[in-house]
Amino acid sequence: MPGLRRIFENPQVLEREHRKRIQNFDRFHGDLRKYVSLSDDEYQRYVTLLAELDISDMRSQYECALVEACDLHETMMEKTRQRRPQISALLGDEKVQLIENYMDNVQERNAVFNLRDTLLDSQPLTDSQAKDLVEELGAERRQYVKDLLQTGAEPHAMYTFESGVVYPSTARTTQEKLSAAREYHRRMRERASRILNADQLAVPQATPR
């Protein structure tokens, strides 16, 4: 692993890798602090811890590769199990759950971003509505997946930037997939009605799909 060797045998390269990971997280997830209501200090300590955990994972991977008897899979699984408790110790379980939801709600954030453009001139979506709508839609998708698993079916998904649908693996024909998609959209629209007002729901294609 020449790339990892270069990082861990050169302190300057290691420090640069640490800074790069913080910068990349901030670039792609900088709005997380507002979404989870983190103070600037909490956010900085959180992203610093993430960078340290990532570097620690890389070091374990590097050191494991140097030991013939080391089980890389088990080593990394153990590192993964240790990660959440360390973040919880920093921020608390409630904020960690919000962060996990944020990371999982990528599709919903994209859908709501598109929805805000659709409603801009007629029934604008407030920042508070947008945040709550992302949460509600993400929660409904996770509940839908859980319901599918309880029936013995596996969740399949189709996504574009603007929309997405989850359907059961048991839906084989086009008609079955369309029927499942309609049910998924019905549940999403019903969930969205908790946040959107009647006029917003009435706008064509207002409900994220």
How would you describe this structure to a colleague?
The longest helix has 26 residues, at about 40-65. The chain has helices spanning about 1-10, 10-30, 30-35, 40-65, 70-90, 95-105, 105-120, 125-150, 175-190, 200; strands at about 155-160, 165-170. The protein is mostly helical. A hairpin with a 4-residue loop joins strand 1 and strand 2.
Helix content: over 70%
Tell me the count of domains: 2
Summing up helix and strand content along with how strands pair, one would put the structural category as: mainly alpha
Number of helices: 10
Average pLDDT level? 89
Distance between the termini: 44 Å
Any low-confidence stretches, pLDDT <50, length ≥5?
none
Major sheet size, sense and barrel closure: 2 strands, antiparallel
N to C succession of SSEs: HHHHHHHHEEHH
Shape: globular
Q: Strands across the major sheet, in which order?
A: 1-2
What's the total count of β strands?
A: 2
Radius of gyration: 21 Å
Topology:
Blueprint: H1 2-8, H2 11-29, H3 32-35, H4 40-65, H5 72-91, H6 93-104, H7 106-119, H8 127-150, E1 155-159, E2 164-168, H9 174-192, H10 198-202
Antiparallel strand pairs: 1-2
Record keyword descriptors for this entry.
mainly alpha; 2 domains; 209 residues; two-stranded antiparallel ribbon
Summarize the structure.
The chain has 209 residues and is mainly alpha-helical. The protein has helices at 2-8, 11-29, 32-35, 40-65, 72-91, 93-104, 106-119, 127-150, 174-192, 198-202, and strands at 155-159, 164-168. A hairpin with a 4-residue loop joins strand 1 (155-159) and strand 2.
